[in-house]
UniProtKB/TrEMBL annotation:
GO terms for biological process: negative regulation of DNA-templated transcription. It comes from the Bacteria. This is 2-aminoethylphosphonate uptake and metabolism regulator. GO terms for molecular function: DNA binding; DNA-binding transcription factor activity. The lineage of its organism: Bacteria, Pseudomonadati, Pseudomonadota, Gammaproteobacteria, Enterobacterales. It holds the Pfam family UTRA. Residues 5-73 form the HTH gntR-type domain.
């Protein structure tokens, strides 16, 4: 004889079924916590535990001061494919947008200098961008560039693909790329941009790029919403 479901498990099961059936189709927004508490005849504490479990499964997400929403399909990301963000989204029938937060020259921290093979306290270009899929912010990224290779780049339109910009303006293409991927918690700058609570789970991807001449030209620090990305790699 099976054990009866706990209240939390029962709420998770019912909400999962409602999500699968498309019940929350209007912007994917769930009823308020007060309404859900009344619907399931439970306390806010118990309800939030259930919502947190569904969030951990990537089924729902919370926007600060807006409530809970059904997570859209994840974007599929293959690090082995040389495809930029907008092209990747377009190939999957999704809509992409890039917003520049700021772009400036600064003295890089030791970790960034090491990744760019530069001496300590070197000046670099830092471009911070927020990237959207279907109108939802999913990626906060800090690009660090060696200024030697990109004169006057801060004065051009940086909402475009840097891959395309490097090619068209500087005759530069990517060669070898190193990826480091770690689960992490969002720092304050990233969580604020992504409109989620500080410390929310994320996937942190560091990408160090070399050009066709094997020179280290830039590195990217990417903070992805953990429920937005599906990494898919096939190796022959």
């Amino acid at each position: 004889m099976s054990e009866p479901l706990t209240t939390v498990a029962a709420i998770c099961l019912r909400l999962s079924e409602n999500i699968a059936s498309g019940l929350f189709a209007a912007e994917g927004r769930l009823p308020s916590e007060r309404q859900l508490s009344e619907q399931f005849a439970t306390t806010r504490i118990t309800l939030r535990e259930a919502l947190s479990q569904l969030e951990g499964q990537g089924l729902i997400y919370r926007q600060v001061r807006r409530g809970w929403f059904v997570s859209p399909p994840r974007i599929v990301y293959n690090p082995l494919q040389r495809s930029h963000f907008h092209a990747m989204a377009r190939e999957q029938g999704r809509s992409a947008k890039t917003e520049v937060i700021d772009a400036k020259e600064l003295i890089a921290c030791d970790a960034v200098c090491a990744k760019l093979s530069l001496p300590k306290d070197s000046a670099v270009y830092c471009i911070r961008r927020l990237r959207y899929i279907d109108g939802r912010p999913v990626l906060y990224v800090e690009h660090y560039l060696n200024p030697k290779y990109f004169p006057q780049i801060l004065s051009v339109d940086l909402t475009q693909s840097l891959t395309d910009l490097y090619s068209s303006k500087y005759g530069m293409s990517y060669g070898r790329v190193r990826f480091d991927m770690l689960p992490t918690r969002l720092p304050e700058d990233a969580s604020s941009a992504l409109k989620v609570a500080p410390g929310s789970p994320a996937l942190f991807i560091t990408r160090t790029n070399r050009d066709q001449h094997d020179r280290v030209i830039d590195c990217d620090l990417e903070y992805w919403r953990y429920d937005a990305l599906h990494i898919d790699v096939e190796v022959n």
